[in-house]
Amino acid sequence: MTKMDNTSRRSFLQKAGLASLALPLGGYQLLNATPLPGKQPLRKLSLEGSTNAIGKHKIGIFSKALQWTEINQMADMVAEAGFDGIDLTVRPGGHVEPERAKDDLPKYAEAMKKVGKEIVMITTAIESADEPHATDILQTASMLGIRYYRMGWYKYDAQKSVADNLSFYANKMKPLAALNKANNIWGGYQNIAGANVGSPIWDITQILKQLNSPWLGSQYDIRHAFVEGANSWTLGFEQLIPYIKTTVLKDFYWGKSNGKWEIVNVPMGEGMVDFKTYFDKMKVLAPDMPISVHQEYDLGGAELGQVKANITEAQMVIVMKKEMAFVKDNL
After folding, report:
1. Angle between the 71-81 and 313-330 helix axes, to the nearest 10 degrees?
2. What is the per-residue pLDDT for 149?
3. To the nearest whole number, what is the mean pLDDT of the chain?
4. What's the Cα-to-Cα distance from 86 to each of 71, 107, 173, rounded to whole Å?
5. Cα-to-chain-centroid distance, residue 275
6. Which site from 48, 104, 181, 228 is most exposed, i.e. has the minimal number of CB atoms within 10 Å?
7. CB 192 within 8 A of CB 226
8. 56 pLDDT band (50/70/90 cuts)?
């Protein structure tokens, strides 16, 4: 894609983006599954992006789906879509490689600042305090005023009991919590569907209870919680309330593809996640808790973090505006 300067790019997005509202994102089909019967957005959506946080929550778009953009292009798109900033990937294969954090993270912060936005949080692969680049990443983020990050995921050791696994990881987190405190930055462990640590919610709750540190808690992902506990997710949420530092918003439903049930990722409001209940329950969480909006549905490869994606800049901004509008209209 030919790179445009910031002024011409904004003008292009305003004109081309609005002119493209009636155009489908050609070829982006979801597993050949039909839409979820009877599922409607909570309220009528507006495509007007807001430049203000929802209440005190700052809303960041997860940069994984923008891996194909360059630094100033991404900043312009975030501003055009109305987000408060970005949830920036600072991990292997992300926008910022861990070994480049000291040099490159400030460049992204400056690009966001130029358009009146910020890095709301960062997503890392950090699992322990003593791994390479962990200190550099957290120190640099802190100096830039970034106060939240997501850490990496843990796997169960099949040779140990569940209880022993939980104790092991609680102890492993202690030096990381201390590093967070030293740098005035909060870490969050994301619950993710599957059979890893944190998938069933209760296990990460036990780890965090054993850890007992305000500097390391939960990045609560309602989509993954709903996958694993469609009828019981509220119970897990209640247990995690004291530990939730940040939250992730995204949606899905179960659909059949070639006779097999599979998860179909869709835009917010088009799937099974009970956002009405979740947004209501979020009222008990910290009023300044940042929010990350993820896009895992078909976006021509962008959703996979590909550096070359079959989607245009204007199309992507339209999709981003719709997600921001959903949060704005319903939270």
Report:
1. 40
2. 98
3. 87
4. 11, 13, 26
5. 16
6. 48
7. no
8. confident
Tokens 């989509």 correspond to: 223
Which pLDDT score, from 0 to 100, does residue 25 have?
A: 45
Q: Please, what is the end-to-end C-alpha distance for the chain in angstroms?
A: 36
What one-character-per-residue DSSP string does 283-326 give? GGS-TT--EEE---S-STTGGGT-SS-S--HHHHHHHHHHHHHH
Pairing state between β 291-293 and 260-266? unpaired
Residue 92 and residue 126 in contact, taking contact as beta carbons nearer than 8 Å: no
Measured CA to CA, the distance from residue 270 to residue 268 in angstroms comes to: 6
Closest CA to 22 of 44, 49, 47: 47
**Quick check: helix, strand or coil at residue 162?**
helix
* Type of residue at 230: A
Q: Are 108 and 145 in contact (CB under 8 A)?
A: no
Give the orientation angle of helix 101-114 with respect to helix 71-81, to 10 degrees.
40
Number of Cβ within a 10 Å radius of residue 139: 16
Can you give the pTM of this predicted structure? 0.85
Maximum pairwise Cα distance, the chain:
59
